[in-house]
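Lab manual, section 2.4: Encoding a predicted structure.

Procedure: take the sequence of the chain (377 residues), apply the prediction step described in section 2.3, and record the output as structure tokens. A sample record is shown.
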Amino acid sequence: MTTAPVLSSTSIRAIEVVLPCIDLDPTVEFFVDRLGFRLDVIMPADDPAVALLSGHGMRIRLERGGTGDPGELRLSCDDPPAWGTDLLTAPNGTRIQLVDANPPLVIPDSPPLFELTRDDGDVGGVGRAGMRYRDLLPKRQGGRFIASHILIPDAGPVPDYVHHHRVRFQMIYCAAGWVRVIYEDQGPAFVLQAGDCVLQPPGIRHRVLESSAGMEVVEIGCPAEHETTAEHVITLPTPDLRPDRVFEGQRFVRHSAVDAQWEPWRSAGFECRDTGIGAATDGLAGVRVIRLDRAAPLTNGVASAAALVHDGELLFWFVLSGTATLHTEGRPDEPLGGGAAVAIPAGSSHRLTETSADLELLEITLPAALELRTATG
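Recorded output:
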């Protein structure tokens, strides 16, 4: 079998987009005068048939008499409305789309949905950096949220790269094993152990370095579809330690389970440890771990939570351990075990009963402080 040669990046000098045209001169003038390109080469001098242009990080080769689709370019600019149109057409037929270089983050306008998934043993599909992704919210709350149970089966280095996300909210909770990570302006790499979590503010550069075998994390982000951008300039660790740096209104949080304080939860007989994400997001989102109050007596070895109704954007639970029965207004009772995930929409009466002594729930809410009322009827 013949092996195709691999070009070294050091041997490549330039890559050109080839565009056909009938009339070379007006097409060159359009790209130079309207779009700000620079004419680099034209040939032959006595009857120009080829022009090489450069600008905005790309090269264009215009060929007179060439055939084929004249192509389409996307022009990212600061103020698209100033052009008076969102589509230009060059004399050779090339279509130029004018798009906002920094468009607003779009959060789909969708009502909250009831969603329930269980761990059926399927480790999910292969995603970025070879990690396995199990979808915890298949309907994505109408596009507002994505929640994933992520598994790295084998121990060792993770083929990740420095990157950042364009998000409204994103957090990572280590559910099993450990993972070594590094974040912009947060010092050297550190290890997230089971029970630890981080808030990843919008735009913070970070990288996954290595993990234990069978490492599991729960990740939730808003919106469901968001950009992940590879970082080619900033290297980690960065030289400055800036734990109080604000990234688009949010501060980085590293919550350590071993140092956490437990406090009463909203239902008697339960307690929680707050991760501090509510304060770091100025109330946008809250992340807590919930368990039975170790000092509260149990009835027949189980406990029940009060029936409540919330008015928030999201109430999401992931069962870290133990079992419980979920009662939701208008739906059959649902047994919950390890790995189960549920989103309970606003306005639905809900409660947990028959909770086992080892029950632990990861709870994520938007906003951080839900408006709750006791269910009636």
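Check your result against the sample. The helical segments are 24-34, 277-280.
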